[in-house]
What does this fold into?
Amino acid sequence: MVELQKNIGNYRWTICALVFFATTINYLDRQVLSLLKPFLESNGLFGDDPMRYESVYANIVICFQIAYASGMLLVGGVIDRFGTKIGYAFSLFFWSLAAIGHALARGPFGFGVARAALGVPEAGNFPAANKTIAEWFPKKERAFATGIYNSGTNIGAIVAPLVVPWIAVTWGWQMAFIATGAIGLIWLFFWWYIYDSPEQKLAKGQLHQVEYDYILSDKDEITSAERNTHKLSWFKLLTYRQTWAFFLGKLLTDPIWWFFLFWLPAFLKEQYGLKGTEVSFPIAVVYIMTTFGSVLGGWLPKYFIDKGMDANRARKKAMFIYALFPLLVLFAQYLGGFNMWFAVIVIGIAASAHQAWSANIFTTVSDMFPKRAIASVTGIGGMAGAIGGIMIAKSAGLLFDHYKAAGDIRIGYGIMFMICASAYIIAWSVMHLLVPKFKKLDI
It folds into this structure.
């Protein structure tokens, strides 16, 4: 197998590495606010009423989610129209500037504006990443490549709690936003000078013919639908059950990841009294676990296929297995009553299952749609996930404020964990009913 890969070449994995680092930066930038929440509260930047801090924070998170959802209305189609290279560079340049701009905020309104400015360009990451993988990898490698680049979300979430609180304590919270935002500008240099389409790389002599042929080896994609370069409108795409399956799958499951991302530091603070940099190590452990889940998510369907299973059945079976693991989060608080680390491990398993699920649900888009529609459909699903994120953020804020006023915020977290536990099995059932078999549409 190693010899075969050597003969084929591996330039496509260089492209995968670029996407991995962009995704890492994407999640590093969006994680900073949640980690700085205690610093911002202590500096009075969430207002004068501590009893409303949870709702204020939820509203700031919602500003990001609304902008992110709105961005998804635009960026997928823009990337399909202008190409991956320009679209990805445009998105990352502007979200890096917006991340740095958080340092100028002086209250809830300023942070809301900064989060909205971050949300719109950040919406470009996954449509561009998904389109890049579809362009550079044959179908049998896409879930694995997607799992690798998607693990960047975990690396970003690991690096952030280890670095951001330390920067805030050492140089102030403003520098935490500036330093993390500036990293994206460095990535732009490498992207612009390394990335081109396989056709362009072949023409420049930077890609071997054998690897180019391997990338384009899927016979079911060499169809009139793939050769056709006419762009598909959202209205056309929304007439397909396959689009709605992806839409609903993202609507039901993306909010769970958003909840873990934005509220895990607060949960550790409220439930176990952790303060400041004390939350860094438990959060890092959770996201280290999710890195393995992301890569495993792409490997397991390939393992089933190698054992002779039909590709559709392999992906469905893998996704069903991943949908079962979040049920363990029902026991997070009970087990955490014996030791905090039991809760951390259970949440880590649930978050890992999400990343494994995510690697496959993204790949279903390239399973079902021609390459010219991948960024647009990914954008539609991303918008759905952002809408779900808005709903869960607002619900969590109101729920936590209510139970904090009642004297036991733990009840609020218990209710949210019930939602997190059941979301994936519901999503799998809905997707299976809408699309019993993932196969390429001839549009």
About this structure: The two ends are 36 Å apart (CA to CA). Residues 11-42 form the longest helix (32 residues). The chain has one domain: 2-216+231-434.
